[in-house]
Design goal:
This protein has helices spanning 39-57, 84-91, 98-118, 134-146, 218-230, 244-259, 291-295, 302-309, 321-339, 350-361, 366-378, 384-398, 402-408, 412-426, 430-442, and strands spanning 4-7, 12-15, 24-28, 62-68, 74-76, 80-83, 126-129, 150-153, 156-159, 196-201, 214-216, 234-240, 265-271, 274-276, 279-280, 317-319, 445-450, 453-458. It is an alpha/beta fold. It has 3 domains: 4-271, Rossmann fold, CATH 3.40.50; 279-404, Isoleucyl-tRNA Synthetase, Domain 1; 412-458. The strands form 6 sheets. The chain has a 5-stranded parallel beta sheet, sandwiched between helices. A 4-stranded antiparallel beta sheet has the order 8-9-10-11. The structure holds adenosine monophosphate (AMP) and zinc ion. Zinc ion is lined by residues 29, 222, 247.
């Protein structure tokens, strides 16, 4: 095993060695569930899925946590604008209550999970709603307060970034914070525009706290949940590049200030954006496409996964329908060539497997891994069985659904005949069941009776 990942913290590719050899610990920033996920968001989770699968393929155990942001994420990352969940409730004409907020969150979380499933993304075992961990947020803020890192203004409790000597380390410390108007605070009581909310007062709706009713800031939820489930220091933290400047920068500042331990996270890994017509795809700008935009056109959702894997996760990509259609043609061809391999069994080709591992372990080089997949399919010296075994092995990471292909390809007509045959057998009408078997055979399929029931396959 020689995993190498690009670490945003050091701005270079580094050998990945887990802190605890027994298990890699990883935190992935989850979605803000005030609306459907868009294609850009889903890239963040295809990337995380490939990362998780690669770690496991390398023989390591992995504990992955994902939060669901269901409060406190303002429309601008820099603490200004409207709360996104509030915006969601207003959009749907619902009254502003905590119960409605939770219902809204649960609805869009289910839609999010459906998207993940359609993209063959393994749903993390541990996915938690941020609003279930308010107590942990409060405790963390109290700790920061006790150590003198906070101050109060009329609208909330703030983190004093001037107390941190290496604030902005994820940016290489070079960032000019005022260069973008967006970073300039709307709250004139803030000591510095970089200071960020830990607790936001809100008298109409919110949770109680030692400082008054309101909501935890968005950044504190990820620090509190990361520390709770993974410890004060862990291996990997993922998110999109938009999280680097503010959200992850602030997570580092507050976590390290609270625990006194550096680094909070060893590897910070970020996926680049998916753009649309040259602009960033963003829920808040209304400039986005959803996975259903693809499936509504009759395109298999895995085509989107396949298209994403054609670029490295750190490459900015622009969504255009022509490119997706090109990917659709290529994926269908791959499926066709795979199905033509028949039912022969074989062995994984070790040399190809080693190369595949080498590419994936090199900062998730999926474009090269896909080229290798084509090489296997086209290799004239390999048996069909060995090709199948090797492709299925690659698919443990690529997740393009080769395994399910055969099952899906059984025509409805054959399935119906097989069901009738099963019925006939149950009724001990062996003459009829035999006739049905022959009919199925004449259509190019065969049925085998196994302990798990009938198995249909192409002859
Ligand atoms: P959100 O639901 O806004 O909290 O974002 C969920 C994930 O999607 C985060 O990791 C973001 O960094 C990521 N993300 C947001 N927009 C894009 C985009 N256009 N392309 C790729 N990732 C994105
Ligand atoms: Zn986060």
């Amino acid at each position: 095993m020689s995993l190498k990942f690009y670490n945003t913290l050091t701005r270079k590719k580094e050998n990945f060695i887990p802190i605890n050899k027994e298990e890699v610990r990883m935190y992935s920033c989850g979605p803000t569930v005030y609306y459907y996920a868009h294609l850009g968001n889903l890239r963040a989770y295809v990337f995380t899925d490939i990362l998780c699968r690669t770690i496991r393929y390398s023989g390591l155990k992995l504990k992955q946590i994902m939060n669901i942001t269901d409060f406190g994420h303002l429309t601008s990352d820099a603490d200004s604008g409207e709360d996104k969940m509030t915006k969601g409730l207003l959009r749907e004409g619902k009254e502003l209550t905590l119960k409605n907020m939770r219902e809204l969150a649960e609805f869009y979380t289910e839609r999010f999970k459906e998207d993940l499933q359609a993209l063959n993304i393994k749903i993390p075992n541990e996915m938690y709603f941020a609003s279930d961990y308010i107590k942990e947020d409060v405790e963390l803020i109290k700790k920061l307060e006790g150590k003198g890192y906070t101050y109060k203004t009329s609208d909330g409790i703030y983190f004093d970034t001037s107390k941190i000597s290496d604030y902005g380390i994820l940016w290489g410390g070079k960032r000019d914070w005022d260069e973008k108007g967006a970073r300039v605070t709307e709250n004139s009581e803030k000591k510095d525009p970089k200071d960020f909310t830990l607790w936001k007062f809100e008298d109409k709706i919110g949770y109680s706290s030692p400082w008054g009713q309101g909501f935890p800031g968005w950044h504190i939820e990820c620090s509190a949940m990361g520390i709770k489930f993974l410890g004060e220091q862990f291996d990997i933290h993922t998110g999109g590049v938009d999280h680097i400047a503010v959200h992850h920068t602030n997570e580092i500042a507050q976590s390290e200030a609270a625990t006194g331990k550096k680094p909070f996270v060893k590897f910070w890994m970020h996926n680049e954006h998916v753009g649309i017509e040259g602009a960033k795809m963003a829920k808040s700008d209304g400039n986005f496409l959803r996975l259903s935009s693809i499936t509504d056109r009759g395109i298999n959702p895995l085509t989107y996964r396949f298209w994403l894997l054609m670029a490295n996760y750190r490459t900015k990509i622009n969504f255009v329908w022509e490119a997706l259609e090109g990917a659709e043609t290529a994926l269908k061809r791959l499926y066709g060539l795979y199905l033509a391999l028949g039912n022969e069994h074989g062995h994984i080709h070790k040399e190809y497997q080693n190369k595949f591992k080498e590419y994936l372990e090199d900062d998730l080089d999926t474009p090269r891994a896909l080229v290798l997949l084509w090489d296997v399919i086209k290799d004239k010296n390999m048996s069909a069985g060995d090709k199948k075994a090797t492709i299925l092995d690659f698919d443990k990471v690529l997740g393009l659904g080769f395994e399910n292909l055969q099952k899906e390809k059984i025509p409805e007509e054959i399935k119906k005949l097989a069901e009738e045959r099963e019925e006939a057998r149950k009724e001990k009408d062996f003459k009829k069941s035999d006739e049905l078997r022959k009919e199925i055979n004449s259509l190019g399929y065969e049925v085998k009776d196994t302990s798990a029931g009938q198995k249909i396959s192409k002859i």
